[in-house]
Known about the structure:
The structure holds 2 protein chains of 2 kinds.
Chain A: H1 19-39, H2 45-66, H3 76-98, H4 100-103, H5 105-110, H6 117-143, H7 155-179, H8 183-197, H9 215-221, H10 223-236, H11 243-247, H12 254-274, H13 278-281
Helix pairs in contact in A: 1-6, 2-3, 2-6, 3-6, 3-7, 3-8, 6-7, 7-10, 7-12, 9-10
Chain B: H1 2-7, H2 16-27, H3 29-32, E1 45-57, H4 64-69, E2 77-90, E3 95-100, H5 106-113, E4 121-126, E5 130-133, H6 146-156, H7 161-175, H8 190-203, E6 208-212, H9 220-235, E7 239-244, H10 247-253, E8 256-261, E9 264-269, H11 271-282, E10 304-312, E11 318-319, E12 321-323, E13 327-336, E14 340-341, E15 344-351, E16 356-361, H12 362-365, E17 371-372, E18 377-385, E19 391-400, E20 408-411, E21 416-421
Parallel strand pairs in B: 3-7, 3-8, 5-6, 6-7, 12-21
Antiparallel strand pairs in B: 1-2, 1-4, 8-9, 10-11, 10-13, 13-18, 14-17, 15-16, 15-19, 19-20, 19-21
Helix pairs in contact in B: 2-9, 6-7, 6-8, 7-8, 10-11
Amino acid sequence: MSVAAPHRHYGPSAFGDDLRRFWSLTITLSMTEFKLRYFGSVLGYAWSLVRPLLFFGVLYVFFTKALKLGQGVPHYPVYLLGSIVLWTFFVEATSGCVQCLLAREGLLRKMRFPRLVIPLSVALTALFNLGMNFIAVLVFALATGVEPRWSWLQLVPLIALLATLAVGVGMLLSALYVRFRDIQPIWDVAQQILFYGSPIIYVAATYDDAKQGLEPVAVTLNPIATLLTQIGHAFVDGSYPTAATAAGSGARLLIPLAFILGTFALGLWVFNREAPRIAERL
Amino acid sequence: MRTWKLAWPVAQPGAVASVQAAVTSTTSQPQARARTSRPSAPPAVAVQRVDKAFKLPHQQYHTLKERALHPFRKDAYDVLQAVDDVTFEVAEGEFFGIVGRNGSGKSTLLKCLAGIYDVDAGDLHVNGRLSPFIELGVGFNMDLTARDNVMINAIMLGLTRQQARERFDDIIAFAGLEEFLDLKLKNYSSGMTVRLAFSVAIQVDAEVLLIDEVLAVGDAAFQQKCFSEFHRLKDEGRTIIFVTHDMAAVERFCDRAMLLEKGKMVELGEPSSIARRYNELNFRRAIPRHGSEAGEERFGDRAAEIVATWFEDPEGQQIGEMGHGGVCDVCFEAVFHEAVENPVFGFALRNVTGTAVFGSTTDLEHGPTGAFAAGERAVVRMRLTNWLIAGTYTVTPSIARPGLGADAIDLRPDVAELIVYGWFPTGGITNLPHQFEVERG
């Protein structure tokens, strides 16, 4: 069947020795997860929408009606819903990765397969969910009068970058969690900080002149802020500032870009290094 | 029970005859056993000087805080050398046994072979695809249907999606579960689940199969089916590595075997000599226990005392184990504290379940034993041909006053052990000397 090279490193590794099998496994595992989530319950897919929609509803009522936050911002509700859905994806992918290796202990201890398949399938499941949820965002956007524009195509590379960041963080967290169990609370706290440090409930560069000093810093140093800002400009309304404007200059965008790629590389390196010993350390 | 009958004809209570037929058909296999290894072919599995150690920390540091608080404290740990400098080769088409006691490192070695653990040192090569039967049904999801689980499991075991789809029907047919395809696995009986898992694993079409005592699960008919299947695969030229501590199975199936003890390879060779060596290692303590032990249950008025009990071969060597069909002496030594007229000496043998399999006394077989004075010693021997099947047996020696034997002087239950090896599946507790004759007409 498969012709194995007689001399090769034999133990478990992150990628294994057959990339086709690697992808086939990743897709199979995430499809299973996806299936289980939606077919096990009566309302199925509706449940995955309920959480972001409810969150959106609460924030929308609170910030637009009570705090009058979105006033003067065109299509603020669309931006709010879109950024919540994207944030949900990021949280689902990264938090899901933290304990994923432990959750699949039985598999890891008894079968030989590329170890990276597990965190990657968690991220892929989150991406499937994002796809489903984004349909709701699209419907909402079109219904509230957002015009389709060519710049929507920018979403593809922007979401790809967000996914890259999520996978990078996911690999890092899942590999570290095997050694240090307090990755879980640390990441819970880090997530809270990231949530408020990213323009999710607010739109970058629009609501407060007093924040002018802080904002370019946030958009430069927090890649999620950079991505959400650019997505707002490209998807919701052209009057939103671009990431370059918000950061102060186009060159500064290299920093979040380097951060995303660096996180991915670091995550990959750490995971690859830990992979052969994951089964026995669990 | 109902589903069992529907799905697994061999296991039907009424189908004993067919089970027996399966048993006899495979017992003829050892004679037909042929070395299929070709000297020129590269080995299917080559293991060279493999080491594998585990660190067993005294106190596990699992949190960053603990590390931050004690940055310079060295982690105290024991090193457990699970596999220590093991070298062997398995030829293509060979049925190879790995035996050892619990904790001897055989499962660790298997996991290294399966590519689950990384080795610390040495080389390990497997030629071709390998299918581990380490645990059946790993990754089965109880909330999915059998159909989904088969696909997922097959892909996990190394098939492509396309191959899994092609073999789907064969897998289901082998398991005999056609009617339950769309049933969720949580509604399966455990037997059905195991059959499904086994079918998937067997259809993966691996060149090398690693089997880790999976056959401990399932009923006798299922085990029989598994072994028949392994034999079929072996006849097709597949290589099978079988980890067990069932010596009977090793002698019955393996071409060669290896004995591990504390991670080291003790011996590699013929299954029968490996089985003997294993029994020596495992039951060393079974060789006679002298004197009385604390807490021992003992009966009688002690006018005489049994001071030692042991087994001997016909040459007078003490033994702790013997082959089926051999001759041995069951012996004890007695010291008389008072004069006793015609004491009755006896033995009873029990198997591990506590069933008395044999017993006899001098009253029944030998006749009056004469008078013994105080201070006199006597050694009592009972010679027997061992028709007991493989297993562990204990002996209960006794001295009683003449009569019905109820008036005990000394009786020490289960005071020595004998291991019997050799495989004669008879379905009972003995293999009596027998011949068949079939007359037509």
